[in-house]
Amino acid sequence: MDRCVVLVDAGYLLGAAASLLAGEPARSRITVDHAALIQGLRQRAGADTERPLLRIYWFDGAPDRVPQPEHRRLRVMPRVTVRLGALTRSDGRWAQKGVDAAMHAELTELARNRACSDIVLVTGDGDLLPGLMSAKEHGVAVHLWAVQAADGDYNQSEDLVAEADERRVLDRTWITRAVRAKEIGGPCAPPPAPRPEIAAILSAPLPESGAAAAAAAAASAEPAEHTHEHSGANGIVRPPAGTERPAAAGAATAPGGPAHRPAAGRPGARTLAAAACLVLGVGLIGGAAAGSWLTDEAAGATPDAAATFARGRDVWHSTPVDTLFPRTVDGFGAGPGGADRTWSRIAVAPDGGCAGAYDPKLAEALARAGCVRLLRATYVDATRSSVITVGAQITKADQPGMTALNTRFSTGNLGARTDLMPLPYAARDTPARDFGRAQRVSWTVRVLTDIPVVVYAVSGFADGRPFDRPQPAEAATRPGATTAPAESGLGHDAKGLADRIGTDFRKAAGGTPRTTKASS
């Protein structure tokens, strides 16, 4: 029948939206207008398939399969059916059980009964591949929708993308019509802009006792000194031109420490309480005017996007090399099966331009962003059996240009093409000395949009063996993958280091920190 059905994997849709808008896949970091979201799905499905909508199936997990408030709201909406799997907690993590099986069953049943001519899948789960192929065999057109990927990473199964008849991306503009990142509040949330009436109150003289309390509070709140160690004149250690120098062993010193936060007092009288509040208001407003004295992790404040983006172009010469490429990187839960990984830096390449640093196709794909500098370092895993080169290209593009490049990589599946693999940095006299084109096993390319940086990582075996079936990290880290890149952990190595280095560049620019996480 000439009508369409939409199957939504809520875990993928909302988790990917949270990653895009809030920097991490936790659904607790976003608020969702479910009515607006469903309306948007209905309109988009009709426009993309040119078929009337039969139904939207919403697949999600819930503890003991008991509907949560959002599920109750959804299931009373017209043409919406909610299907719930179990939500279980294991090793401190929540995991859905039975959701993919329910989607697979519904997909194949709809196709077998010829209930519709077009099916829209909003998912990234490769386990639905058999159901997708079965639907196609029954004459159903399958449309695969992706949420715009954060960091330029590919957030759908490569096999699903290859088999789908059509693929569309729900971009940031579309997502934000119904989804918003939560603003983190608390005692250190940014104060509102001062108003004249408030300024008049703040300028009023304090009672003598209140002034004394203010002086005592100011004395106890004196911030601790911070140190910031730089390596070389511009923060990047450079071997002489034309040479390759392995990095020395040793631990890096973290630049600075956490900001000091004054303890709140407990005045015993109403007057003292009012005075303390006035002093606190003066301090917060004055601190905002003079510059932030709290780190964004402590304050939970969102830095100004334009300023962060501008600073991102300068981090290569204003930040120590050990901050951007730490000597030791711990990837907690970043290995196969959630195992921990540790990587040690063995070489830092001389920074320079991008000419000759990429294979021709990748150079062409990145050319439109321009190149200010290319920074590279090579790491080895704890067993010294894997070598990984991670790079960061500082671009000339503005923020819309980076967003366009990110979208091009996502929609064109460029991150999964073997002719767009990055090149390794094979430093002499290190375990990576034989790490060349033929030795590449897994890779990832991330186009960041909050700072003008493209981060990539490419991994291989340290013994120099050639490999003729390289696999992108997104596919190699998928649960159940049994390929050599998956079982060796080389896909996890590439993904884990790209995650960490991208996080370090963001933090150096004053952006939102993001931690290394294994694929799920």
Automatic annotation (TrEMBL):
InterPro entries: NYN (IPR021139). It comes from the Bacteria. The lineage of its organism: Bacteria, Bacillati, Actinomycetota, Actinomycetes, Kitasatosporales. Residues 213-222, 238-266, 472-486 have a biased composition (Low complexity). Residues 32-166 form the NYN domain. Residues 490-507 have a biased composition (Basic and acidic residues). Residues 213-266, 466-520 are annotated as: Disordered. This is NYN domain-containing protein.
